[in-house]
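name: query_chain
kind: protein
chains: 1
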Amino acid sequence: MPGSLPASDLAVPTGPDVPPRSPERALEAASARPRVLCVDDSPAILRQVEELLRGEYEVTLARNGWEGLKCAKANPPEVILCDHEMPELTGLQLLVLLKRDPTLRVIPFIMATAASQPSSARFLDAGAHDFLPKPSSPEELRARLAAAVRSYRMYQQLQAKQERLSAALELLEKNEARARAVLDSDLDAIVLLDGAGAVEELNPAGERIFGWGRGEIAGRPFLETLVAPRSRRALEGRMSLRAAPPALEPPPDLHGLRRTGQEFPIECNFARLGGGAGLCAFVRDLTASKRMQIELHQAQKLEAVGRLAAGIAHEINTPVQFIGDNSHFLQEAFAAYSELLRRYREAARPEALDALRAAEEELELDYLAGQVPKTFTRTEEGVKRIATIVRAMKDFAHPDCRDMVAADLNRGVQATLEVARNEYKYVADVETDLGELPLVTCHAGDVNQVVLNVVVNAAHAIADAVKGTPRRGTIRVATRREGADVVVTISDTGGGIPEAIRDKVFEPFFTTKEVGRGTGQGLAIARAVVTRHRGSIGFESEPGQGTTFTIRIPIDGAPHEEAP
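structure:
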């Protein structure tokens, strides 16, 4: 093959040991003088090259091939100018050794050859960068050296860029692996959406929550596939890439859609991907949380019932006591009437009339005739009182349905006041002004809990205000309809709420009561319940005069905008 190397040229003789190359040096600035290694067995040529390149290049001289290899490893140059015909190690053999070294093989190698030597193609085939015929002009030498240096420096710059790119790619792969680990381990569903709102990616939690596999869900519209129909409108505007950034607070009462068609409560928020590439939806399954809330509210009701148990027992004991007394009285009265009947039977003789009149006076028949009907009446009232208390307790403690249902709030308010009577009866009178209300779609038990918490707080406030005095306070409960809402107001004549703590009264566990009298949860629970009903709760207070709480609940269970 033309230009191929003979075996004799490729055979590398054994030479002296060459010390290992020092660690790779950083690239020098472009303005630094290029480093040139000149290898030739002619001292005269070495001096000529050194004088010719002085001032322009940093020149290192080597008198034979082995010395040249040693110099290249000790201080790698940017270009090597080497004579071919040298004893012991020819230029071509030196070139082969250099090309075997991964570090030195990239250095441009210019082979200097006499015009009488064979074609230079074989040098290029072996990896030479260029060749220089002997003799040649100084201008040609400078030109070939400058071209080789430019090539080498350009290669070094490209290599440095490649190393930076490789490092950046490695970092990117690490970050991607970390992000994937976070996505795969997150307990919430993370859904990547394209600009049109179609699903691109779903993490394992999303597969478990929604019941879709990644391959199955890809390309399907997010709203129509994973969001319940009643919640799509609330999320549609938030998904627009042209809309304002999503609010921090997600819309309440959202529902997702499982693959089976089952709806379930969720919390959903969005984050935009950079460059308008789409959205990332974060979806939390609230099924267990809602169940825990229901259980917690029921437990709170039972706690309230337990707190009121002593008072309830007293309330029931009073009518039971006078029912027992009246029953005893009726028993004695019945015995007296029986005795009188017996004597009437004996009085069939006229001579017994005087004795009969004396017996009527002895047994107080006239008194019995007046009191027995009243006794029956009081007994009936006592039984009704017990029935009222028991019914109120039953209405208050009855667990709510999972969904909102139409309820009579006035009846709930009355039942709650009956249950809480022992809390206020010694310190306050209750006045009610219950307006005509439509049925309200709500969780009635939760609303009753709100009223109870506020009434108990009112009773405690009045108790603190009248403590040590014979005075009694007043709790006034009123209901009315205002447009699409029902409004419940609860006023007390307690000491009012100090200005300094008004912004804290709805915070969980905040209380000014002594240990054992309050947990600081009452008003926090009240606000949570009202917020869940899309209503509002607030108060007005005047120190020394009292406080009025206002509770507003939408009639149909949905929020309404106020009229301008």
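note: The first strand starts at residue 35 and ends at 39.
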